[in-house]
Amino acid sequence: MDEDAGMETGESAENGWIESARRGDLAAFSRLVLSHQVAVRAFLRTRLRRKHEAEDLAQETFVTAWRRISDCDPERPFGPWLRGIAEKHLLNHLRKFRAEPIGGDEALQMMLDRESESSVPESDLIAALGECIERVDSGSRELLIARYTEGRSMDELCERSGSKHSAVTMKLHRLRMALAACVEAKLNRIGT
Hints:
Blueprint: H1 10-22, H2 26-45, H3 51-67, H4 78-96, H5 106-117, H6 122-135, H7 138-149, H8 154-161, H9 165-191
């Protein structure tokens, strides 16, 4: 009798595990996890700075794979299907935790960068900004102070004002744009 006749190849064993897992066999799914966990963790680890984030996303990947195992085609390789799930979790994670610029507005930041390269003294910039802030109505001034001086979160600002997140962010955006235009106009008058 041929010794290899009773042994499954790696690919056919994996196909069997997928079929068993699709029928609810957790032990078969565990074998799939064991055979792919290093590759999934490596895939995520090379794309994230923090090791614990990669570990968390790997776990989320395997939980999602278990929940969606019925979507997996046992005739196709399991690894790419699993990496697809990992990639979706990674993209969602990166979108969710994307760093936001402190100023919150690229146009204002560009203007500030341009101004910082100019020969305008910082004291003139601060004085112009102070004058512009004084011209803003008291409710808007309180919003600016709460956000940029006190460092209040958007959730706190929404709760405090009773407004929706989108309304508060739009108001802050408009205020920043108005302040930028005001500061620029004041600096132009000083420079002429």
